[in-house]
Design brief:
This protein has four helices and six strands; from the N terminus they run H-H-E-E-H-E-E-E-E-H. It is of the alpha+beta class. The longest helix is centred in the N-terminal third of the chain and has 9 residues. It starts with a helix and ends in a 7-residue tail after the last helix.
């Protein structure tokens, strides 16, 4: 399983290439929106999502058959930015399931800024 190639296809919204990474009975859960997808529905949700996308893998960890990755995903027009944490179960080199958690990037809430709690990461 080449996670870089998977994300390259995902960001390019290339359903045909994405499909090659999945077991036939795989599924994807987007926990933030309480959605469960079979592979074909996931491909539709991803590839029909409006806009053009790019991104970069920031971190990966593999333990046994679980691959965890954090990816910065952003629109090519610079208007939207997200971080996604994906937990991919891998069997025989193919994805059997993904549990993903998406968060929109943005500024800290005003109350924390006002209270001077925390500092910028970078």
């Amino acid at each position: 399983m080449n996670i870089e190639n998977y994300w390259k296809a995902t960001l390019a919204q290339d359903a045909d290439t994405m499909r090659t990474f999945f077991h036939r009975d795989a599924y994807v859960n987007w926990h933030n929106t309480n959605e469960h997808f079979a592979v074909e529905d996931f491909l539709r949700a991803n590839c029909e999502y409006p806009g053009k996308w790019d991104g970069e893998i920031e971190r990966t960890i593999q333990t046994g058959d679980l691959l965890i990755c954090v990816v910065h995903v952003f629109s090519t027009d610079g208007k939207l930015s997200f971080h996604v944490t994906s937990f991919l179960k891998i069997k025989e080199g193919k994805i059997t399931s993904i549990d993903e958690y998406w968060g929109e990037d943005g500024q800290a809430p005003q109350w924390r800024i006002d209270q001077q709690i925390g500092t910028p990461i970078s």
